Amino acid sequence: MSGLRVLLIVNSFASSVTARNTVVVHRRLGRDADVEVVETNRRGHATRFAADAARRGLDVVIGFGGDGTLNEVATGIAGTNTALGVVPGGSTNVFARTLGLPNDPVAAADRVADGIAVGRIAPIGLGRVNGRFFCFHTGVGFDAAVVEQVERRGSLKRWLGHPLFITAGLTTWWRGYDRHQPHFRVSGDGGHDVDEGYFSIVLNTNPYTYLGNRPLDLSPAATLDRGLVVVTFTTMRATAILGSLAGALGGGGVTPTDSLDVRIDVDHLVIEHEVPFPYQVDGDALGSTNRLEFDHVPEAVKLVFPSEPSG
């Protein structure tokens, strides 16, 4: 598939993006395609670049940055004939690693370029919350409060990475989140209403995240060709949460219990409360709200699947 037109959207503030590797990534992607490069400089910029590329009829838009950059690109091209590609440039790169890409941007760019060249492009489903698409998950409650703490220290994220998330998690646990009163209600597909929600993850893919090189697998049912998976904790007892997460680190996913509601193949869901609660989308904290309405959108975007690793 030669002669394709590609837009590479670069977030130069992302933790693994440098001027040097941007040049190399551009060169590798340009082996079999005409590649244009633009850089983002504010929130929402990547969405506008991507939407413009789709209007101009470009074949592929590739996000080179963190998960937030990828989310913006996907939002800009969803529902069009322009395909989505990803080169990891952030600190965690959940979606890219879900696709089997290495964290090294140059190695990843080679495999994405190969995928484009041989036409490994197919539609995938996305989640959508209050009209905004998400690639891998939306976090509600405690998870979102932790992400919000991390973003307040955004200047350190490039250098500290996972230790910053651990510190933010502990700080939020002890003094940044009410662990005694429920924060929201959950209703919709897949089970009875949950009246006492403290912490929910709405998954479009699995794993939920990575702890270093270890995937945190919440549900193997969360795949790009099925409905959403929703995991809701109805307690903030440390024993309940750590017990479930320990099972997730073992690779088998979490098991429903009296304090853990799990729904699979969800097409529609509502999370709401009279008191606003925090939420984040693909690792991007979006503040607090009283209501979140989720739906699953099959074949929402075309995705460039990377080539298989050599050897």
CATH architecture of the largest domain: Sandwich
Which H/E pattern describes the elements? EHEHEHEHHEEEHHHEEEEEEHEEE
The total count of helices amounts to 9
- How many strand segments? 16
Q: Report the structural category.
A: alpha+beta
Query: Measured on Cα atoms, how large is the radius of gyration?
Result: 19 Å
Which segments are poorly predicted (pLDDT under 50) over 5 or more consecutive residues?
155-160
Q: What's the overall average pLDDT, rounded?
A: 88
Could you please say which CATH topology of the largest domain applies here? Tumour Suppressor Smad4
Q: Beta fraction of the residues?
A: 35-45%
Would you mind describing this structure in some detail?
- By secondary structure, the chain is α+β, with helices and mostly antiparallel strands.
- It has two domains: 4-119, Rossmann fold, CATH 3.40.50.10330; 133-296, Sandwich (Tumour Suppressor Smad4), CATH 2.60.200.40.
- 31% of the residues lie in helices and 36% in strands.
- The protein has nine helices and 16 strands.
- The strands form two sheets. Strands 1, 2, 3, 4, 5, 6, 7, 8, 9, 10, 13, 14, 15 and 16 form a 14-stranded mixed sheet that branches. The protein has a two-stranded antiparallel ribbon with strand order 11-12.
- Strand 15 (268-281) and strand 16 form a beta hairpin.
- The two termini are 24 Å apart.
